[in-house]
Amino acid sequence: MSANNGYAIEAEGLSKSFGEVRALDGLDLQVASGTVLGLLGPNGAGKTTAVRILTTLLEPDAGTARVAGHDVVREARSLRASIGLAGQHAAIDESLTGFENLEMVGRLYHLGRDRARDRAHQLLDQFALTDSGNRVAKEYSGGMARRLDLAAALVAAPPVIFLDEPTTGLDPRSRQQLWEAIREQVADGTTVLLTTQYLDEADHLADSIAVIDHGKLIAEGTSDELKRRVGGDRIEIALSDPADAARAGEALEALASEPARHDGAILIVPIRQRREAIARAIRALDAIGVGVEDIAVRRPTLDDVFIALTGRLAAEKSRQSEVLR
Fold this sequence. Notes:
The protein is an alpha/beta fold. It has two domains: 7-227, P-loop containing nucleotide triphosphate hydrolases (Rossmann fold, 3-Layer(aba) Sandwich), CATH 3.40.50; 233-299, Alpha-Beta Plaits (2-Layer Sandwich). Helix content is 34%, strand content 26%. It starts with 6 loop residues before the first strand and ends with a helix.
């Protein structure tokens, strides 16, 4: 595995078991330098296990991986100076102030007293925490604590950072603030591996996406490439009466590229072309007396991709999930 091929993260054949549970089953990954890879998968798919191996917190049973040019097993100690990690729960000392947390991390990285203090001030400003820098962290809101945690992961300015579901439980405003902080890091050349159950998060942040299930890579590509695998545009129609779904579907067969399906009062019709689709659909349904509450043309989402690939929702629990957390 070459260390100078443009990839900041490479993994080949990673496997890991916990008793009878196989968390990773020959996982392959490649992340180009200066990009964001969104690592998606249901609970228990192996996302966190993969992150723990790539950040030297676990050793694989089989396979190899290099991060920032370092072998994750043979060069674990030197690798740790080249990565940052922020997880699902903020790993900060609540008895210290925000400034003291960041200064402490800087000293642990042997930045020296003055450099550690300068870096702490710089990051507090970057993450909009300057006004709260002298407050103890236990007084921080969830969003503030998560931003401080991400800032701590960046104290040593690592070229690669791992974000393991970093916005879980945050309100929308806090998520947006964290997204902006991540974008700024990538703009400066940082490579990010992001695991998330929020598919809109991957859509907004990831340059490429890898979907894993049962410890295996099952799909990869850009968001648009994965969406094209699911299919083209579709009309979604909220019917006034759910009992009309079958005959409404028949009336729209001329527009459809595939048979219509319905979920309660919502009729979903994959269509051949987007142009004038709504007008044609309304005319066809009006002609047979089917009432419509709402109608729209929609493109496939990552949620559609996820369900098509894994057969379940991103946050749905699997039998393995409690073992692998």
